[in-house]
Write a structure and sequence with these properties.
Layout (H helix, E strand, L loop, with lengths): L11 E2 L18 E5 L3 H13 L4 E6 L6 H5 L11 H9 L4 E5 L9 H7 L2 E4 L5 E2 L12 E3 H9 L15 E5 L3 H11 L2 H4 L6 H8 L5 E5 L11 H8 L4 E3 L18 H16 L10 E6 L2 E9 L1 E13 L2 E12 L2 E4 L3 E2 L9 E2 L4 E2 L1 E2 L2 E3 L17 E7 L2 H4 L5 H20 L19 E2 L1 H16 L11 H9 L4
Parallel strand pairs: 2-3, 2-5, 3-4, 5-21, 7-15, 8-9, 8-15, 9-11, 10-11
Antiparallel strand pairs: 1-22, 6-16, 12-13, 13-14, 17-18, 19-20, 20-21
Helix pairs in contact: 1-12, 5-6, 6-9, 9-10, 13-14
C-alpha cells in the first residue's frame, strides 16, 4: 500500500516534494482519481465513487480557494434551502479518502496530460462559465450585461465585485425566461430589508438600496405554454410584496383551452398564469409599486441607443410546431438596463481536451470522453470500444451543456460515476502501477482546513450584520486566512 506524506504546517502553502513508500509488495494498488471542479457535479461524482469503489482515493481540484461552485455562486441568496446540499458535500470532502485542493487551475497550474499520468482516472466537472451571446447589433452598448454576471456580482464570485450594474434607471429587461432570469428579477424587485437577512454581498445590498428600477420585463421568444421558469419561481414572484405582476392578455389567446391536455407539471404552471391574468387589474389601472411584466413571443433583433442602451427592438413571433417563427411585425420597448439570460457554454481550458466549440461542451458518450480521432471498425460513436479515452470522463454541464437543476446534475454525475466504477471493476482501467497524484511542490494550494478557516471568517463577518455569512470576494484575502489554518 502506498501512503502519501502530506504537508502539515499550513493550509495554503508551497508544498514539499511528495514522498512515497511501499508498505508491502503484496498490498493492492488503490485506484487514484482526480476530479477537476468542486461544484455539484464534482461532489456528486465523488460521493458515488466513495460509496461504490472500495479503497479509492480522490483528489478534488478547484481553481478557486473555496468549494461548491454554483451552489455558492449561482443559487439565489434568498433560497437558502437549496444550499443545504452543502452539508452533504462537506461530508464527502471530510472523508479520509478525499483531498480538497483549492486555488489550483487546470490549464494554468497543471495540464490534462499531467493529470492522466498521475492518476488512474480523471473526471472533468468544471462546469460552464461563459455566456451565450445574441450576436445582434449594438450588443456591446453600455448597460447590456448578462444575467450570469449580475448573479456573480450579488453572489460574491471573485472578479465581479466591481461590476457595479447601473440601477439608476426605471426599467430592467431580462432576455430569457429561465429560472436564472426570474432570480434576477426577484432580487431586483425584492425589499432590501428582506435581502438583508440573506448571504447577499454587502456591496450588492448597498447598490440595490439605491435602485430606482420599478419595472422588470421578462421576455421570451415563445409562448406561455413553453415558459422555462418553474412553478416555484413563479409563485415567489406572484407573492412578492409591493410588486404587481402584469401579463399581456393577447399572449394567452387559446391558452386556457389547451390546459386539459397538458402534462401535469405544465398544466399546473399554466393554470397559475391564467389565474393570475384573470385577477389582474385592467390595463388602464396603473400598477401600484413595482411591476413584473412577462412578455411572450418576442425575439430581440437590435439594441437601440447611443453609447448606452435605451430600448430593445423585437421581432414578433408566432408558434409553428412549438418553434418560434418570426413575422414581419416589430415592437420596440424602452429600457434602461438589459441582462441576457440565454444560457451558458463551457470553455476548453486545455488543448488536450476533446472539446466541441460549437456546442460548448466536451465531446463525450454518456460521460466517457471521446478520442479526437475515432478508430475501430465503422468510425461511428456506436462502435464505442476504441473511441473513448480510457480513464477520462466528463460530467455536469461540461458534458451535457447547461441544462436542468441541481437534481439533474446529480443524476448525470451519479451515472458517470457508475461508469467509472464499472470501468475499474471490469479492468478497463488497469491498475498496472500506483499513481502519485498531483505534484504539489511549488504550487500554493488551499486544503479543506484552509476552506474551513475561510468559512469561519465569513460566518463571523455575517453574524456581525445579522446575516448567515458575508462572503469574501478577494482571493488574496482568502489565501491569507487559509494560510493561518493548520492541516
Amino acid at each position: 500500500m502506498l501512503r502519501k506524506v502530506l504537508p502539515t504546517s499550513s493550509a495554503v502553502k508551497v508544498a514539499r516534494k511528495c514522498v512515497f513508500r511501499n508498505a508491502s509488495t503484496a498490498a493492492p494498488i488503490r485506484p487514484r482519481i482526480c476530479i477537476v471542479g468542486a461544484g455539484p457535479a464534482g461532489f456528486y461524482t465523488a460521493q458515488y465513487i466513495l460509496k461504490h469503489l472500495d479503497n479509492s482515493d480522490i483528489d478534488i481540484v478547484e481553481k478557486l480557494p473555496v468549494p461548491f461552485g454554483l451552489v455558492r455562486f449561482g443559487v439565489a441568496p434568498d433560497h437558502p434551502e437549496v444550499k443545504n446540499v452543502i452539508n452533504t458535500f462537506t461530508k464527502t470532502a471530510e472523508n479520509p479518502r478525499v483531498r480538497f485542493l483549492g486555488n489550483l487551475c487546470l490549464g494554468k497550474d497543471f495540464t490534462l496530460e499531467e493529470l492522466r499520468e498521475r492518476y488512474h482516472a480523471v473526471l472533468l466537472t468544471y462546469g460552464a462559465e461563459q455566456d451565450n451571446t445574441l450576436n445582434i447589433p449594438n450588443e456591446n452598448l453600455q448597460n447590456v450585461l448578462s444575467a450570469r454576471e449580475f448573479v456573480a456580482w450579488y453572489n460574491g464570485l471573485p472578479g465581479f465585485e466591481n461590476l457595479n450594474p447601473d440601477l439608476s434607471g426605471k426599467s430592467l429587461t431580462l432576455l430569457g425566461q429561465g429560472n436564472v432570469a426570474v432570480d434576477v428579477a426577484r432580487i431586483v424587485l425584492s425589499s432590501v430589508d428582506d435581502l438583508k437577512k440573506t448571504d447577499i454581498t454587502e456591496y450588492a445590498l448597498e447598490t440595490l438600496s439605491r435602485s430606482r428600477i420599478d419595472t422588470v420585463h421578462l421576455v421570451g421568444r415563445r409562448g406561455p405554454l413553453q415558459a422555462a421558469f418553474t412553478i416555484k419561481e413563479l409563485r415567489e414572484m406572484l407573492k412578492l410584496s409591493s410588486c404587481t405582476t402584469r401579463w399581456r392578455a393577447d399572449d394567452f389567446d387559446h391558452v386556457e383551452e389547451s390546459i386539459p391536455n397538458l402534462p401535469r407539471p405544465r398544466k399546473r404552471i399554466t393554470e397559475l398564469m391564467v389565474k393570475s391574468l384573470a385577477e389582474q387589474a385592467p390595463n388602464n389601472v396603473p400598477p401600484a409599486g413595482r411591476c413584473f411584466q412577462p412578455i411572450f413571443f418576442r425575439s430581440p433583433v437590435n439594441f437601440v441607443g447611443s453609447g448606452k442602451v435605451e430600448a430593445v427592438e423585437y421581432v414578433v413571433n408566432r408558434l409553428a410546431d412549438g418553434r418560434a417563427v418570426p413575422t414581419e411585425q416589430r415592437e420596440t420597448i424602452a429600457t434602461d438596463l438589459v441582462c441576457r439570460s440565454i444560457g451558458y457554454r463551457a470553455v476548453s481550458v486545455d488543448n488536450h481536451i476533446n472539446f466541441d466549440a460549437r456546442k460548448g461542451c466536451v465531446n463525450n458518450a454518456g460521460g466517457r470522453v471521446l478520442k479526437r480521432n475515432l478508430t475501430g471498425s465503422d468510425q461511428t460513436i456506436d462502435d464505442i470500444e476504441d473511441k473513448y479515452e480510457t480513464g477520462l470522463y466528463a460530467s455536469g454541464w461540461l458534458a451535457t451543456g447547461p441544462t436542468g437543476v441541481i437534481l439533474t446534475t446529480m443524476n448525470n454525475s451519479f451515472g458517470v460515476a457508475d461508469l467509472v466504477c464499472r470501468d475499474f471493476n471490469s479492468n478497463t482501467i488497469r491498475l498496472n502501477g500506483s499513481r502519485p497524484g498531483l505534484e504539489l511542490a511549488g504550487r500554493p494550494y488551499v486544503s479543506w482546513n484552509g476552506w474551513k478557516a475561510i468559512d469561519s471568517e465569513e460566518v463571523r463577518l455575517g453574524q456581525a450584520k445579522g446575516k448567515p455569512r458575508e462572503k469574501l470576494t478577494r482571493i488574496e484575502t482568502m489565501l491569507q486566512i487559509a494560510s493561518n489554518a493548520s492541516d
